[in-house]
Amino acid sequence: MNQTVRVRFAPSPTGALHIGGVRTALYNYLFARKTGGKFLLRIEDTDQARFVPGAEEYIQEALAWLGISPEESPWHPGDCGPYRQSERKPMYMQYALDLIEKGHAYYAFDTAEELEAMRERLTAARVVSPQYNSITRTQMKNSLTLSEDEVKARLAFGEPYVIRIKIPRKEEVRLHDMIRGWVVVHSSTLDDKVLMKSDGMPTYHLANIVDDHLMKITHVIRGEEWLPSAPLHVLLYRYLGWEDTMPQFAHLPLLLKPDGNGKLSKRDAEKQGFPIFPMDWKDPVTGETAMGFREAGYLPEAVLNFLAFLGWNPGDERELFTLDELVEAFSIERIGKSGTKFDINKAKWYNEQYLREKTDAELGAFLKADIEKDGLGISEDKAAKIAHIMKDRVTFPQDIWRDSKFMLIAPTTFDQEVASKKWNQEAVSVLTQYMEELEGFTEEFSPEAAKALLEKAAETTGFKLGKVMQAVRLAVTGLGGGPDLMAVFSILGKEELAKRIKFALETLSIQS
Ligand code: GLU
Predict the structure, then answer these.
(1) Are residues 451 and 502 in the same domain?
(2) Backbone phi, then psi, for 194, in 5-degree steps?
């Protein structure tokens, strides 16, 4: 194929962009970059009843946050604009009329009540899925059943109508999907979908095909939920005379609940307390809120890496990929067919890996900001040192301050359980001796020096350091566990350390 690849992400601005949509955008982005093609974004807003203000901006910001912004979009139009379907409204009718002319579509004048009556009739006759189709259309009010004059009169009178596709009665529709291979559907299972609505807007189906054609889209990479619509789309390409340049299809596997039972939903995520949206969202109409990966502390690199692996894998053991490496390794052939489990622990694991790759200065700056939000202060240098000893122990940047408060705030209370088990005469003796050692020490108080002095104190008192270590930590931090203690000592400094030990010796009593 020597045609330039052009792919598109075509979200509807009906609320926060679901993480599955972000994955679709990512795969489109990766494929475009891999093939030297173009990645477009088209806003599919023909369903104006479902339009939500702010949703488009949300999509734009989410993709920018992840570094996968489209090259052509409503915000950066290329030659195929406009990039919002509502602004393309005047373009669609001609194609619907063309279909009518060729006998592949028809006007339908049925009212909502008449449609409902049809459904009731069919349900009473035990028809499993009552539809407007090649059989039922013969009993409805449309340009196939009404006389030409009557149709003309109704149109002239301004009677509301829709335009429906005329699905052939008995035909096999075949389509090739790059992930699933050949998909064959019998036309008797398809219904006569509406193409133009009574408000003059096209439906998703017509607009999608017309736009993909006019925007010279070569590959349609989208979620599996659109696979059932694909045969209809193939027929539309055929009837519009565009089959030769019809895009290739790739339908991405579903995202499943963590236990693999069914489709991942917002409710599952809320119940289990993890995000399935890229950023926080508040619906301006309903006030409904959704938690975002960004605000939860996920790094964009981690989210990208996590999403890339939801349905794709490189075929070997490698798991950590930068965006450029993903581009390099990506191929549609390596996307799986079956649904993929959404395992938030994997996302956390990725976050930990990428967090560790941040420099101490970067994480220190983050920590400093958090500390200042709490009304405290710290030098950049000290914040970087704390970040250094904490970064292997946390999942999210904000965990650093949460888990290192003791570095700035001396304990006033002590972990009761550890105190009752570990605070004993040995600990008191070693710590008392340690304070003396500290007082006489005048060199740089490095972690090694802190350790050497403590060993000396243990030796002098004749107790084993290993046995009192947890009590030592308790005295200085108030806690039973934490980062490398000698590094903690060194960052706290001699004076602060001595002050804390003194307080602990005065406050903690030995329990028997
Ligand atoms: N507007 C559709 C959606 O919201 C796009 C489907 C497609 O890519 O064809 O997912």
Answers:
(1) yes
(2) -70, 135
> Does 85 contact ligand 1 (Cβ within 6 A)?
no
Burial class (CB in 10 A: 0-12, 13-18, 19+), 17: buried
**Do the Cβ atoms of 390 and 420 come closer than 8 Å?**
no
What are the tens digits of pLDDT across the range 279-337? 999 999 899 999 999 999 999 999 999 999 999 999 999 999 999 999 999 999 999 99
| Same domain, yes or no: 450 and 422 | yes
What is the whole-number distance in angstroms between the Cα of residue 116 and the centre of ligand 1?
28
Q: How would residue 48 be classed by pLDDT, with cut points 50, 70 and 90?
A: confident
CATH at 137: 3.90.800.10
Ligand 1 pocket test target in 41, 204, 227, 255 with most atoms within 8 Å of CB:
204
Round the average pLDDT of the chain to a whole number and report it.
96
Shortest-distance atom of ligand 1 to CA 221: 8
For residue 206, report the phi and psi dihedrals to the nearest 5 degrees: -70, -45
Q: Convert the pLDDT of each residue in 426-458 to its tens digit.
A: 999 999 999 999 999 999 999 999 999 999 999
Find out whether 456 is annotated in a ligand binding site.
Answer: no
Residue after which a domain boundary falls, among 206, 225, 245:
206
Please say if 348 is a catalytic residue: no
Q: What is the pTM of this model?
A: 0.94
Assign 195 to helix, strand or coil.
strand
* 156, 237: one domain: no
Say how many domains are in the chain.
3
> Residue 418: which domain range?
410-512
Structure tokens belonging to residue 380: 């950049």
Q: Which of 257, 266, 346, 499 is catalytic?
A: 266
CA distance 47 to 13: 9
